[in-house]
Task: structure prediction
Amino acid sequence: MSSKLVNRHDGIKNMSESEHLMKTYAPLDVCFDRGQGAYLYDDKGTEYLDALSGIAVCGLGHAHPAVTRAIQVQAGKLLHTSNLYCIQNQQQLSDRLSKVSGMDRVFFSNSGAEANEAAIKLARLHGNKQSIENPSIIVTDGSFHGRTLATLTATGNRKVHAGFEPLVQGFIRAPYNDIEAIKNIAQNSKNVVAILVEPAQGEGGINLPDANYLNQLRTICDEHNWLLMLDEIQTGMGRTGKWFAFQHSDIIPDVMTLAKGLGNGVPIGACVAHGAAAELFQPGNHGSTFGGNPLTCSAANAVIDSIEQDQLVQRAAELGSRLADGFIKQLSNVNGVTEIRGFGLLIGIELDRDCAELVKLALQKNILINVTAGNVVRLLPPLILTDAQADQIVDTVSQLIQSFLN
Ligand SMILES: Cc1ncc(COP(=O)(O)O)c(C=O)c1O
Result:
């Protein structure tokens, strides 16, 4: 009764529009009923190859047996207590994240935006400890950090701000991948306390900075006692061919935020801190009713186990090269393809024109892709792809792009 049956497409009924859901999304005409590995099946049993993983969430694919089992076992024992009490599998998860990242302490949230909210609060505490009035965080154009008021303000996209003014104070904007701009801000502003940046911009169009960008940011942060805060919500959990994208350089950030791939579909985020930043929060400074509860931590522990056991970080690097090589072979000489960008399994194919309709055309070919920044085909396939599935993504998406451009 809550969903209106909409009669379209020659009488085919679909459930994608509802009278009672807020109109925040404009879903495609497909409802998935189940998934298995890299495939999704709609309510009629039609199979789709998933080259998007729920936007970088289901890195282990759908219905991964270890994650399913962990959730089932935990649900039969205990779903929730409260952070008023010790949660053993939350402690285990923090130990494991600390081991794979080299960072010190973790705060668990329920989403990426909330992980970034925690990071923003850490930056403000860091400023307040030094008696800096109106502490400011540098953020970059083209970034995406979430939809809460502070994180949408941090986001470098006017469309995300529009209508929600007044925005939150305490952010300074700079172009992405522009070290001179950061140096200028350092010279002219005395109240900067942190930089919040994505190691590669996901929503912004798979924008990859110069190889030494993070190293240079680290140096500037050290010189000025700013926190280097990396939003790894899209790049983390093995996707780029390292556990975390910062591990492609020689630095360690003060703060890193995670979500998406951490729970393989179970909602969990994390704000991970290193060194002095890890000691900033004290009891009473921050919290969350659901954050880090036994159910979500059981899933995230199973995700880390499976990534380790199946060596999926190395596999993401191999698959990323295979896909990038394939696309370069098939598309680099095609008129209208302006750039092919790959960072492990974060892949962007930029066209010289807007191409949002490719998403629907791909759906008709039974493959799930995304278009971001208007003209960038974005692929975020699961880390468990077979070689044959990777090749199928290259062939199908290349053909789609070529016929779209013709
Ligand atoms: C880099 C980045 N940061 C933050 C977010 C927000 O995460 P969530 O939607 O879980 O709040 C996203 C989501 O797409 C993201 O890609």
